[in-house]
Amino acid sequence: MKILVGYDGTSSAKEALNLAKSHAKVFDASVEVVTSMHKGTESERKAIEQAERGLAYAKSLFDDDDIACGTHLLIRGASPGEDLIEFANEHSIDEIIVGVNRRSKVGKLLLGSTAQYVILQALCPVVTVK
Fold this sequence. Notes:
CATH class: Alpha Beta
Radius of gyration: 14 Å
Shape: globular
């Protein structure tokens, strides 16, 4: 079994890592942790370095329990939701775990919701964590 976790460093994303760790133990699964950035030009160097540190942190959580874990920083010009769905399809992911952040209905309308996009577009089960 392969589990995908969308990770952006938020507290809900950290909860998603914890749930993925539990699921990986129960289902003897491997975990792929993905961070998505829209662009990666020189001006975003600090954000890229922060994302890489976050992925290293995520990997360490799984390494501590000998759970197979890969980390991926995607900079493809797509939205995070699109990146997660494309990655899941490319790698035959069996379950996606994403954190959700509380936002107003207007905020979701104007900014979109990564979790909502993933839930609606994924070909596999999606678990959300807050």
